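Practice problem: predict the structure.
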Amino acid sequence: MKLILSLLIMTIAFSCCKSFSLGNNRIDYSKFENQVNQQQCFTSSGSYPTGYSTSYVTLSFNGNYPTSNGVQQSSFLESGYLDIDFVGGQLFVDFLLDDGNTKTKGKFWGFSGNSTQYVSVNVNETDYCFEQPLITSVPNFNGLKYVSDFELGTVQCDMFEQNNLDGNFTNQILLVDKTDCSLISGSTININSPSGYTLSNFYYYTPSADQTFFQLPSICLNPPQPSRSKLNSLLAKLPKIIQNLPF
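Answer:
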């Protein structure tokens, strides 16, 4: 476990650290007609996708995450499927969260139109779905800043930065494939104390939303109201990916 965490820290530190020289990564710029350090993706608002869907794996060591008690640190492994519709303001996540003590499998729907979210989870073989005001927003491309070129393996990437996430406590670096502008990887670093890191990798990226996933199941159409203590325990089971969505 210590080895895995050490490798995670080394990987993210390499990606995020501002002191290393991007020019030493030996990118083969000839693949892009010698356009050295020229941004290929998201050069205008018209080049943004209308939505996307992707599988993801997120690993966090002491990463910043907002809670009802302010920003706190969390270590966990989460995997799942993410579907975002920027035009309709809709968000869906099918997730499996492992915090080292418990594993939680669930689904999340967020709708900016009525500022409502739904979470369906299974606890002790019992299905729950609860409705509450939307605590996150469907992301946009505001604040996305091009940094430089980067190479991940043999994939030529645009590197972007988003600053001041989670109440100005977190910076985020994103890697996007230059050839089709698909999201590849994202990492965050705490800029407060204690230090912490999060790494997310994205797979099977599709540059459009799948509308079928925004249909609520029957249990969420008339959800039973859990007790306050039960609701508080369920709220702790929200997918972590929604707090640091790349865009």
